[in-house]
Specification:
Length: 235
């Protein structure tokens, strides 16, 4: 039996504009003691399927781990991939397409109580095939770093499927998916698709507890000026 959920992530090597020397680098989603273990090749083998997903909390980490608190750039991202068996890979390929893929997404959340679960897709990385990296944690350096603004959120998008899921964790581990509230579980959840058209808005109406999407994002915040200039003064 194979139970299906919905998740994302990936990695490569080639930068666009390099961060300035001495720039602060933050790994969004990283925690000191990472005890999350990918679910495959156990039975059930769970994978992220046709989804854009946002990890809301990670046990042992800060609140809102993928929230952008200062303008900057996302320059790379890493995914922790499980290694499904040949039979499990064939199952996912036959039902959802191949190869397994991930991409990183920048979202902006609605700013009213009524729209707080609405997220607009602002930008995305390229799509990365991850079939050659199963059982490892590849890091993909973005050819074009993603510009992010304060209040943006960093999500993972899985166009078809990707084994980046860990379950049976604590209640402090939870994530949201790009699904309406009445489409949270299979088979209805599998009839929908990941958020991939820029400016489109999706309702992240499904929350899953005791589970994690295994991705981190490498974020370089803009430097903060320490000396005022005439340009900094208001008119």
């Amino acid at each position: 039996m194979k139970r299906l959920l919905l998740l994302i992530s990936a990695v490569s090597l080639t930068l666009g504009p390099a961060p300035a020397a001495g720039a602060r680098v933050v790994e969004l989603g990283a925690v000191p003691n990472n005890n999350a273990v990918p679910s495959c090749p156990a039975d059930p083998c769970e994978a992220a399927v046709r989804v854009t997903a946002l990890q809301g909390r990670i046990a042992g980490g800060r609140k809102n781990p993928y929230y952008i608190r200062r303008d900057g750039y996302i320059v790379a991202f890493t995914v922790q991939l499980s290694k499904p068996s040949d039979e499990q890979i064939a199952f996912f390929n036959d039902n959802f397409g191949s190869p397994p893929q991930v991409r990183l997404s920048v979202l902006r959340r609605g700013d009213t109580r009524k729209t707080r679960l609405n997220y607009r897709l602002i930008s995305q990385s390229d799509v990365y095939d991850v079939d050659r990296y199963l059982g490892s944690s590849p890091t993909f350096v973005l050819d074009q770093p993603l510009r992010v603004k304060k209040t943006n959120w960093i999500a993972i998008t899985v166009p078809m499927w990707a084994p980046i899921f860990s379950n049976n964790l604590t209640n402090s581990d939870w994530w949201r998916s790009s699904r309406a509230k009445d489409n949270c579980e299979p088979p209805r959840s599998l009839d929908q698709f990941a958020l991939q058209e820029l400016r489109n808005v999706s309702v992240f109406g499904c929350t899953y507890h005791k589970a994690r999407l295994l991705y981190t994002a490498t974020y370089v915040p803009d430097p903060q000026p320490t000396v005022e200039t005439d340009e900094d003064e208001p008119n």
